[in-house]
Write a structure and sequence with these properties.
Strand content: 25-35%
Order of helices and strands: HHHHHEEEEEEEEEE
Oligomer: single chain
Mean pLDDT: 86
Low-confidence stretches: 1-16
Largest sheet: 6 strands, antiparallel
Number of strands: 10
Radius of gyration: 17 Å
Shape: globular
Number of helices: 5
Helix content: 25-40%
Distance between the termini: 55 Å
């Protein structure tokens, strides 16, 4: 009985991973083609090899947050555009069950897309949980810059924004952009959780 339950859980997790990998694959291909970029051109812009980009586009690889950050930066789009389906208009009510969740296969970084920015504007809300000692780094964005406001909910976090370094605890708020390289590192003995609010500059 226990083995059946364990197998079922593992199968469910595997299916969810396959689903998000397929979504990332279709979004990456669509965004690259919309910008008329070849694999070689995106590789040059992002610093990700042509072979790896091709694997991601064919859903043959589960990309990490760092890899997705490089691809988003090379495309000049927010990371959310690689992780969520494109919608014409926003939902007035977005229940927890409808919010896309993605976990980095290496760092264990968990990202919940609470609210998506839409074509007409608005803000994007993302809840992030970093496991103990986990670190995620992103390059400077190559596209139109946007602002982010980070509000700490639990734990301790270090943010490197270019040459500036900030350490945050529960309740702290940090305003920054994507015009410099960024590194987020969980500090202390446990995980940390924070809310990111992104809006056009």
């Amino acid at each position: 009985m226990g083995n059946t339950s364990s197998t079922s859980t593992a199968s469910s997790a595997h299916g969810a991973a396959d689903g998000i990998d397929a979504l990332i694959a279709s979004r990456l291909l669509a965004l690259r083609q919309a910008r008329a970029l070849s694999l070689a051109e995106l590789a040059e812009l992002s610093g990700v090899s042509k072979a790896m980009i091709s694997k991601v586009e064919r859903a043959q690889s589960s990309p990490t947050a760092v890899l997705l950050g490089k691809l988003a930066a090379g495309l000049g789009v927010p990371l959310a555009q690689l992780l969520t389906e494109e919608k014409d208009s926003p939902q007035r009510l977005r229940t927890r069950a409808e919010q896309h969740v993605w976990r980095d296969p290496e760092a264990g970084y968990l990202r919940r897309q609470v609210a998506e920015r839409h074509a007409g504007g608005g803000v994007e809300l993302v809840e992030v949980e970093l496991p103990r000692s986990a670190q995620v780094s992103y390059p400077r964005w190559s596209g139109r810059p946007y602002r982010q406001c980070l509000w700490m909910l639990e734990g301790a976090l270090r943010v490197d924004y270019g040459d500036e370094r900030f350490e945050l605890g529960p309740g702290d708020c940090l305003d920054f952009g994507v015009d410099r390289p960024l590194t987020f590192k969980a500090l202390g003995r446990g995980a940390c959780r924070y809310l990111l609010v992104a809006s056009p500059s």
